Amino acid sequence: MSNRLVSAGALLVAGLVLLTILAPLVAQYDPTAMDTTAPLRRPSLNHLFGTDNFGRDVFSRTLYGYRASLFAALGSVAVAAATGVPLGLIAGCLGSLVDNLVMRTMDILLAFPAILWVIALVSVLGTNTGVLALAIGFIYAPILARVMRASALAVKEEVFVESARALGAHELTIMLRHVLPNAISPVLVQASILMGIAILIEAALSFIGLGTQPPDPSLGLMLSDGRDIMQEAPWVVVFPGLAIVAAVLGFNLVGDGLRDLLDPRSRV
Q1: What is the pTM of this model?
Q2: Into how many domains does the chain fold?
């Protein structure tokens, strides 16, 4: 908590997660319920963020829309870490042959446009938030693998690793006990930043119809629905847009703060 960036970002993200969890209690209206008598009402005490062209409460839809965004962010990074971190660790520790095999595969994956992978997975598995998290995680895996490999290459040359090897420690023990704990910091920083980017990707894919499908609320879908009436009722896009900004800002602050906190040179 002594690091202001981490504190600010963590509090912002924690607040958004808490609002998402408590959405059934905080939201006054059903996010999918239409009210034909109250279309495009301005923000008021009854409707804090106003209503859209179908009379749906924008505040309720924003809270529930955060569920899709945060699930995509956390799920995609979890998938990427579960695959990219072990591959990067293996590539960095087991010599040039394994390194070339793993990293050239990662290079091939990075060479294809990310949108093609997403479209392919969505076409096969369908359009929902879980598939979206899996698709984004598939894109992120090579990124985390490269970060983990670079960090592992630096750590494995340290004196304490050479000492463990000289004392007869097994290579797997060295990787898991000595290299991984000391090389994971850059991965944590990168992962927190990727969470913010995942929220933007989820919103963009939902905006073009490849993400969350109506009537389920999504921040990107709300922007898509409101683009034709934004001059008449700007609140239908302003509040979902600010919600995306807040979430991305929170994760970026956490990432920047972790980078400063975990860098030994910053403590000199």
Answers
A1: 0.87
A2: 1
